[in-house]
Amino acid sequence: MKKLGLFTLVVLLMLGCSSAELVENWKNPDIVIFNANKVLIVGMTYNKDARMEYETKLRDQFEARNVEAMRSIDVFDVDFTSSERSEQELSDVEQQLLDKDFDAILFSKVIGVENVEKNRRLLNNLDRYNRGFDEDYLSSQRIYYEPDEHETFAVYHAETSLYCICPGKERELIWRGSIDILDPVDIEDVIDDYIKLVITAMEDQDLIFRKEDKNEITGL
Questions:
Q1: I want to staple 55 with a disulfide (CB 3.0 to 4.6 A). Which of 71, 87, 100, 140 is the partner?
Q2: Considering only 5-14, 42-51, 59-68, 74-83, which range has the smallest mean pLDDT?
Q3: Which stretch is the leader sequence (predicted)?
Q4: DSSP 3-state assignment of 47?
């Protein structure tokens, strides 16, 4: 099995096991249904191979559902993620995305935590929902170019956020989901399970994807 190492974009979902716990599933109360035609997938991690695998697999899931999606590795220059960027530089990127008809960003990251109780208190801080994509990205961008100094964390916290970058929407937060993970081991399995969770959560809340209608007679 592949070891976790520096991989920081994982979620472990084990059926019937308490190794993974959903600690947050928040949706903007002003949003009932959200549609997007072109989505940028951003996986923020120091591990470039893990980033490519995650973004590629998630892009494929979007395209399988007839939603156009692009990986950030195909949009961001290599130099862009190799060092810290300013708010103006990120605003320029957002404008370029608008010019290219993107209307949403799905932004994922993992933060290792030692004190789960403390982290959960942070999850209840409503200020986290008043920030746009630019603030979220700027506050986390060191993940790209600074190795994780805490490789032995027993608990990992994964977070995925859906932002609208539609004109007039001011890059508002549409949805955020978070999970605590205990001792993830197999990277490929974890990525697959995490992607399934994201897709299912978005379907359940009518965000880009819709559940297939059941047959009224058979219920299937």
A1: 71
A2: 5-14
A3: 1-20
A4: coil
Residue 4, both tokens: 């976790």
Buried b (16+ CB within 10 A) or exposed e, 4-31: beebbbbbbbeeeeeebeebeebbbeeb
Q: Copy the structure tokens of residue 169.
A: 């929407």
Arithmetic mean of pLDDT over the chain? 75
Helix, strand, coil shares of the chain, percent, nearest 5, are 35, 25, 40
- Helices 187-204 and 48-64: crossing angle in degrees, nearest 10, is 40
**Cα diameter, the chain:** 57
* All structural domains of the chain: 20-204 (3.30.160)
- Rounded to whole angstroms, the Cα distance separating 181 from 193 reads 12
